[in-house]
Amino acid sequence: MSAFSTFAVYFIIWWITLFAVLPFGVRTQAEENDVVLGTVESAPARFRGLRVVLLTTLVAAVIHLGWYVLSVKLGYDLDTIFGSIAPPA
Fold first, then answer.
1. What is the pTM of this model?
2. Mean pLDDT throughout 39-44?
3. Sign, Cα dihedral of 39, 45, 60, 20
């Protein structure tokens, strides 16, 4: 597998992980009792973008490492995993 393909898989994992990590630890303006005029109560009180990016990168790296070991090093693929489950064609 080429380096570009490996990076492409990592980027897809990172992007999906971003949306999973984004709500972790967010406190709304309503929870902080500090609603800014013109915003909704459910808006974040403080957005910690660097924290979200770092946590996303860490979680995505662990997931990608697991995928890489199973797929590239051990040779598992979808046919190997689901081949015994699927009915014969």
1. 0.75
2. 91
3. negative
